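Q: I'm writing up a methods section and want to include an example of the input and output format. Could you take the sequence below and give the corresponding predicted structure tokens, formatted cleanly so I can copy it straight into the document?
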Amino acid sequence: MVLVAFSVSSWWQSTVCAHFSRYAQAMVNKIYRKDVAPGRNGTKDDAPEHDCLTWFSPPGHLEGPNRSTSRCLRTVMTKAVSKTSASLPADVIDKASIRAALRKGLRMKVNRRRNSARVLGYRALGVYLDPSVPQANIQSVVVESASAVDDEDGPASVGGNQSRHQLVLDSGGTNTMRMLSIDDTAAALLGEFLGIDACDVSKSARTAGSATVKTYVEQGELRKFILP
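A: Here is the clean output for your methods example:
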């Protein structure tokens, strides 16, 4: 007979996190394609305040299954817990307690990763869009070809002029500049929240995130739900 304490083993917690990561990436793509409204109630009323990079960042901690969170996040978390609990051995007793333990562990992870993703987003991008930090900004530049830059934020046509972006930091009159890779920034944000390496972010989720980050840059503002 398997004890209830078996539910908190690291293997099962890792399993539910892996399912969460997979389902969350699929949700990113669905929100980007507008197949799903990303707002708190899952309706179009509050959806304009959210996008495919903010639905996982509710204003408050996930103190319970339905508090301070979006419908999309609740859906992904519930699906991950259900998928994991469905694979429990048949002789496990008190599966309800095990599911509760899995939900609690997943909520704790989401709370931690959400905060770290916000900090990363501001450090990597938000500070350059913050009007209260005049020393930092993002500038548009035009390059002649793909070979003109080492780190791009989109595809380029050889021989054609392409618009890119660079991060500029003015420190005592000395400018420090580096090219902004929108694709890598989006992958890093998603990877930070999901607890996976940026290189493991799926192509579809990376594409959706890249388009959203590019919107931030063009509008000159980072969404409030991913500000620390």
